[in-house]
Design a protein that fits this description.
The chain is built from 5 helices and no strands. It holds the Pfam family Vps55.
Length: about 140
């Protein structure tokens, strides 16, 4: 992509950002629809986990995100991995527990889990886009 003109690279970058915005918006819509369609707002408890999920990364991880993908002896990086994993499991466990308790129905559970996977897809796309050197400002 180095041989493309600057305006074409900028347009591609804008398209990727728009795709990320659509993914996040779709996840939010699925989250709200899981509650509104079934007139039960208990599934909104997963929003707490969505808010808590990036906090360990913001507080404990360094600006170099590559340390999260490698094995490390740093206790802060290990604590970050543990807390982030716990929050991610909680994002799936809360709707499952609510369904098991009979608080929400199967449709709300399906929408909650699909919302989670859309958010995960958006995060993975962001990480991939952030690691590409073609769009960095020098």
């Amino acid at each position: 992509m180095a041989d493309l003109p600057g305006y074409v690279r900028s347009c591609l970058h804008t398209g990727k950002l728009a795709f990320l915005a659509i993914l996040v918006s779709g996840g939010v819509v699925l989250q709200v629809l899981a509650c509104a369609l079934y007139d039960n707002w208990w599934p909104m408890l997963t929003v707490i986990m969505y808010v808590l999920l990036p906090m360990p990364l913001l507080f404990f991880a360094s600006s170099d995100s590559s340390s999260l993908f490698t094995e490390s002896d740093n206790s802060w990086v290990n604590a970050t991995k543990f807390l982030t994993g716990t929050s991610a499991v909680g994002s799936v466990a809360i709707p499952a527990i609510l369904k098991h308790a009979g608080v929400i129905c199967w449709g709300a559970l399906a929408m909650e889990l699909s919302s989670f996977f859309v958010f995960v897809l958006a995060i993975m796309c962001y990480i991939r886009m952030d690691n590409e050197n073609d769009y960095r400002i020098l």
